[in-house]
Records
---
Amino acid sequence: MQGSGSSQANSQQQQEVQKLRTMLQSGVYFVQLIGKIGDRSTITEYNEAYEAGTNGDAPQQSSDSRKVEWTFEFKDTPEAGQQATNTRLISRTNFEDGDLIPFLSLLGYEYVQRYYVEGKNFYSQDTTLFLHRLRELPALQPDQNPTEISHLPPPDKCRLLDPSGSWILEASIDIADGKAQELRDRATRQLMSIRETLSPSVKLEKPDRLALDTRIPVRVRQI
């Protein structure tokens, strides 16, 4: 039994090493530092801290930061092709504590911007349905740290990126081994089944690959 467990551990480690090699060889990708705030009660506490800060009283920095689960997420840009779904490499690393922005700066990453995502996850077998929308966050002052929650305004005070108030529904499946064709085919069938099931209510389409490429500038057309 010990030999079997050791073999499985080695196999999993080899998969992680191969995944890391593929990630480092990827030509086009982007990274995000994601802070999971929590439920409505937690956001209420942040709002109270924010209001206290705007009134001149310093919010409890250490208490706020302990409530946030930080994750460093890597995503590559899907390859072009006629596949029914987009496939991309994703790597997530949990950060428990420390000065995150200086640490990432030492790795060669530069802070660009931040935004607020509000939404819910729903699960159907292996499929994750993410219903969400984006809100713009105000620019930070030079002396402010993007990871300090005291600088996070209440959600209802952040302007929606889409002024119509529309929500985005994203269907996805995480695969442990992206090179296993059997797993990819099964995931594609499940996603197609979810799309068919939801078709009377919402139309799910594969997003344009260029829309997921951070090298392409975003132009807003005014009508």
---
Amino acid sequence: MKYPGICCILLLSAYSVFGETCQKPEITASAYVTEDATILTNVAFTTQFTLKCSNGVKDISLYAECEGKSLPAVRLSTDNKYQVSWTDDVKKVRSGDYSVKLYDEESYAALRKALRNGEDPESVKPLAVVTLNNPGVYQGPWINSELLAVVLAVVVSYAAFSAKSKLSA
């Protein structure tokens, strides 16, 4: 190698470009939650968001954490659009707000280290937090239509036989 100084400068400049962290992140998010679970066993949660950094950093690898689950944030396009999706059992799902905490590689490594060492994971500050609202999951009517039809048939039959027996007597 004739130019070790140039190689070092190129390596350091590449590190500074790829190793930058997002400063003052701004998130624009939308969300979707399965609301009709009459025939489903799992409820799907999806949040799609755009990340804007004040220092112009793009193409960051993001990770998410929600309700104790670690999830990857999938990059959808080069203009910093991401998506986080997961499913959960219908019986375990609650209505209300879910906080999806987003971490870059550095803070996600710190989160995993805190979990491994038995430390409080809340001590690791996320890059940003996306709130996903679940209005509730419809699991069908309280009484099945078949049961209601049988009950109504019994009531109508009883009323008809009672009226007939009063007329006959």
---
Amino acid sequence: MANVYDYAHDLEKGLRESDEYQGLKQAYHAVMNDESARRMFDDFRETQLDLQQKQMQGQQITEEEVEKAQKMVELVQQHPAISKLMEQEQRVNTLINDISQIITKPLEELYRE
């Protein structure tokens, strides 16, 4: 019987070689190599992380912070390189969610019995 960790490493290799990941990698490098896009993307990510951290700590998020985040989302979605990056991130997330459903199927079946 094969070691399940060997399968996991094969899966990692497959993910790295997938069209979805390769597209994400290209889109990421396009943003990182464009100074204005990189700055805008970094600001966007920092704002997202700050809001997530506040939520996890149970802190109240102000209306002003929500408005700022919404404006930032609108702004980054208008930038072609960042928009492409976000689209590619979604494709990879979909792939990972699909894989997660596949690998948790034995547990779902067991608990449905």
